[in-house]
Amino acid sequence: MAEQEVQVLLVDDDEDDAVLIRDWLTEIETVGFVVHWAPTYQAAVEAIERDHHDVYLVDYQLDDHTGLEVLQKVREHEGKAVVIMLTGTGNRTVDEEALQAGFTLGHK
């Protein structure tokens, strides 16, 4: 049974990916992940401003925005929060941009 609860904001406009990631996290028994899903940039901004999250999992491409813009909002509101960007682009330039902005990379 999980001894701690970790609040996660998952920012991804692909519902199938969001469900898959949520399911993976909730299968972990040693940590109780509580996953909140934001399917758009605007929903992410509202969640960031409204609630505290321990971890932010952010897709790179979101409607007319990018995960880097979400990172900026997290930094403005939370300071140095844990933000992991998820990207399926396989584009090294995106990886380098994300690293320069302070992301840890996780390819989906």
Q: If you had to describe this structure to a student in words, what would you say it looks like?
A:
The chain is α/β, with parallel strands linked by helices. Strand 6, helix 4 and strand 7 form a beta-alpha-beta unit. Helix 2 packs parallel to helix 3.
Number of helices: 4
Average pLDDT rating:
85
Strand order of the largest sheet: 2-1-3-6-7
Q: Work out the strand percent.
A: 25-35%
Percent helix range: 40-55%
Query: What is the global morphology?
Result: globular
- What's the story with the biggest beta sheet? 5 strands, parallel
Give a count of the beta strands, DSSP E runs of length 2 or more: 7
Uncertain ranges: none
- SSE topology string: EHEHEEEHEHE
How big is the Rg?
A: 13 Å
Q: Which class of secondary structure composition applies to the elements? A: alpha/beta
| Ends apart, CA distance between termini | 28 Å
Descriptors:
108 residues; globular; alpha/beta
In terms of topology, how is this protein built?
Elements lengths: L4 E7 L3 H12 L5 E7 L2 H10 L4 E5 L1 E2 L2 E2 H12 L3 E6 L4 H10 L2 E4 L1
Parallel strand pairs: 1-2, 1-3, 3-6, 6-7
Antiparallel strand pairs: 4-5
Short summary of the structure?
This protein is of the alpha/beta class and 108 residues long. It contains 4 helices and 7 strands.
